[in-house]
Specification:
- This protein has helices at 35-49, 69-86, 98-107, and strands at residues 2-7, 12-19, 22-30, 57-63, 90-93.
- The protein has 130 residues and is of the alpha/beta class.
- A hairpin with a 4-residue loop joins strand 1 and strand 2 (12-19).
- Helix 1 (35-49) packs across helix 2.
- The termini are far apart.
């Protein structure tokens, strides 16, 4: 199974492409405030570098937190939307071994259908400046 991994909880975003547990390609970039503009292009580059297409993705592992409020929202929205549109399973994972744990869960047949973010605390939403 071709598995896409997505981590967007910090300014440096990470994407990985795995064939089962074997890493095919991995990419990190300074996404920071440009994550929503770059994430799809970076996924496409990752797929092309491994001679794969969107249709080859058979599962998604998404880092679900804790982390940046906006970064997690963007990354998990992309991951959930891809899983839905590609009709493939998705799992959320956290911790230092989030990729390994997520791949094991996918291979065991787990599919949460929608990964929800875990921010680690309540979001700090400030008043709009006028």
């Amino acid at each position: 199974m071709i598995i896409l991994t997505i981590r967007t909880d910090k300014p440096e975003a990470e994407l990985g492409l795995y064939k089962d547990s074997k890493k095919l390609s991995y990419q990190k970039w300074q996404a920071h405030r440009e994550l929503s503009d770059t994430v799809h292009r970076k996924i496409e580059e990752l797929l092309k570098s491994s001679d794969k297409t969107w249709a080859d993705i058979g599962g998604i592992v998404a880092f679900q937190g804790p982390g940046s409020f906006t970064g997690l929202r963007i990354g998990l929205t992309v991951a959930n939307t891809l899983a839905y549109s590609l009709d493939c399973p998705i799992v959320g994972s956290d911790g230092d071994k989030w990729i390994e744990t997520g791949i094991i869960e996918l291979e065991s047949g787990k599919n949460v259908q929608q990964v929800m973010p875990e921010y680690g605390s309540e979001p700090n939403i400030t008043q709009q400046k006028k």
